[in-house]
């Protein structure tokens, strides 16, 4: 997926980039381009492939396939030190035996820049990162934020065409992180250098970026400006990852009319499919008197957050999160409505409402009337009425509620969570197990990317109507 952007000022391009470690695909045919002087952020959960992209661009990793081009020319065969690229790591990798000046000057001296030119360059860069007067200070005498500035100055002083930043604020406390976000954006404007920034922190991405690239499981989910990503998420994963969202299972009744929480809401989207995800941001819910709302909710909790009240409201078996300047007491009933343009309709990430299974009969009906069927190297004994012969194929449906996360000793299968989204009253999970994708509805709070064990509840395998002989 590559954002359609105009202009010929493309600095770097990734073309069908693939990378695996230990037979696990980390990057899956990634296509992306970055324009000159742009501030681009790769955003996503741990393990989604963000840092691997940076390492392939820098030359620390070689992709299995695909290409990395710089101003239209491949740089895969260009050694790391000859690429016009510098990297700032989360661990700053400063030289403890050198003072601030010598740390910043190190790259220039490696390039054999004359000493007469080094000093003005270093002093200019120290002033830019607000460390003027610190040039003789030992590294050990600096705070974490000051060390981070030294690392950035050392990377920028060589004036690379592209600066890669791999979660450089991760080691800082919250206040310092917020300060450094603003300073990094200012440095980007002053230097005119292209920044490619990696983070899992949505606030960092929204605060600093010209363009955000949201990633999941080695693939790009959406590319856009911070405003586009927040206001028009491409799918439930993006909506859940970027800011707080109410994400509901919904049904399109017709174009621009959606049924959710038992009521019909007007929206601005045509019908992409009968069953959809409806995304409503907490700040877009309008609190009214009960009789004036599209739906009526019951306030379960209310917290004052300084500029708004955050309310947890139950409605039609779903839980709504509302940010409003209108307060309501716990236990009170309120009306809720949403303007049509603030309801975002999206196709579901899992195309069906159940898990479809094709199993093979591996043993005919026994004395107890049970037939053995197998799929994904697991066998089940089922009380099927019809007679089946070995090697017959039978289709089953498994409800998402009948797939249960469990301990390894009790498991039928194991896999990796590809996506976890809170849907108001449960977590909707998409789980990868071998070549199969499972849809799960669970109360357990697990993180995307986690390795998990799961089993099928008793009676979960339901014969698809019309499949019985």
Q: How would you summarize the topology of this molecule?
A:
Blueprint (H helix, E strand, L loop, with lengths): L9 E12 L2 E12 L3 E5 L6 H9 L6 E6 L2 E2 L10 E4 L11 H11 L4 H14 L15 H13 L5 E5 L7 H18 L2 E6 L2 H7 L2 E6 L2 E6 L1 H6 L4 H6 L4 E9 L2 E4 L2 E4 L8 E6 L5 E3 L6 E10 L4 E7 L2 E7 L8 E5 L6 E4 L7 E9 L7 E5 L2 E5 L10 E6 L4 E4 L6 E10 L4 E7 L2 E7 L8 E6 L5 E2 L6
Parallel strand pairs: 3-8, 3-9, 6-7, 7-8
Antiparallel strand pairs: 1-2, 1-4, 4-5, 9-10, 11-12, 11-14, 12-13, 14-20, 15-19, 16-17, 16-19, 17-18, 21-22, 21-24, 22-23, 24-30, 25-29, 26-27, 26-29, 27-28
What is the terminal separation in angstroms? 44 Å
Q: From the alpha-carbon coordinates, what is the Rg to the nearest angstrom?
A: 27 Å
Poorly predicted runs: 1-7
- For the record, the count of structural domains works out to 3
**How many strand units?**
30
Proportion in β-strands: 35-45%
Q: Quick one: CATH class of the largest domain? A: Alpha Beta
- Strand order in the largest sheet: 6-7-8-3-9-10
Q: Percent of residues in helical segments?
A: 10-25%
Count of helix runs: 8
CATH architecture label of the largest domain = 3-Layer(aba) Sandwich
